[in-house]
Amino acid sequence: MEMDTQQSVLWLPYSLRWKREGLVSDNIYDSSRRPHPLVEEFLALLRYRELVYQLVSRNIKTRYKRSFLGVVWTLLNPLLTMIVLSIVFSQLAKMEYYPVYLLSGLVVWNFFSSTTRESMNEMIWSGSLLNRIYVPKSIFVVTAAGTGLVNLGLSLIPLLLICLVLQVPIDPAWVILPFSVLILLIFAMGVSMIISTAAVYFADMLPVYDVILQIWFYASPVLFTIAMLPPRWAWLFRLNPLYYMINLFRMPLLEGIIPPISYWVVASVVAIIAFIIGGVIFSAKSHEYAYRL
Questions:
Q1: For a pLDDT cut of 70, what percent of the chain falls above it?
Q2: Which pTM does this prediction carry?
C-alpha cells in the first residue's frame, strides 16, 4: 500500500510535487495580478523619494552655483518684469494695486510654465540614464514640480514686499493660499505628464510647446483683467483653466476674500481630470520610454 502511494506521488505534475514537498511556496508571481501601471508608478516613486530630493537639490544648486546674483536674481527677476509691465499696462488697467495684480499673476504663470517645460526637458535629456538603470519615469515630472515649488516660494518674497510697500491690507484670507497652490500643482503635474509623453514620441514637441505657452500666456489673466475685454469675448477668457487658478491665488491676496465656491469646484475638477488623464497616459507608455529616447 505504501509503495502505491509513493508511485501515485511520482505521477503528480512537477509543480504539485514541488509544492507538496515544500520546494516552492504559494507566493508565485502572476503578471495578471499586477496593479494598474499608475499604481505601480506611484509605489515606485515612493521607494525612490530620496532620489527625488537629490535631483531637486541638484537642480537648485546647478541653477544658482555659477550665477553672479544667485538667489537674488530669482527675487529681482519678477520685480523687474513687474516694474516694466506696470509702466506699460497700468494706464490701460486703471486699477488700484495693479503691480500686485500683475506680480501675483506672474508668480502663478511662471510656476506653471517652468514646471511643465522643465518636466519635458528632464524627460528628453534622461534617455542615457533610463538606458543604464531603472528609475520610475515619473521621477522627472516630480523633480520639475519640486524645483518649481522652491522657486515659487522664493518668488513670494518680492510679492509680499510689494504688498507691504503698497500697503495692501493683510487679511486672514491669505491662509487659503496653500490650497490654491496645491490645485495649481496638481494641474501642472497632469499637463507635465501629458506633454512629456508626447515629447518622447515627437521630437518637435518642445518648440511647439513654447509657442503654445506664448499663446496661453496672453489668454490668461496675467496682464489684463476680464473687464478690459469686449463683453462678447469674455466667456472665452473663462474657458482657460488658469483663469480660475490664478484668481484662486490672487483674490485672497489682493482683495482679501475667499474666492467663490464655483472657482474652487471648476479649478479642482479640471486639475484632477488633467492629473488622472496625464497619469494614465504616462504610466501606460512608461515601459517604452527607454527605447525611444
A1: 78
A2: 0.81
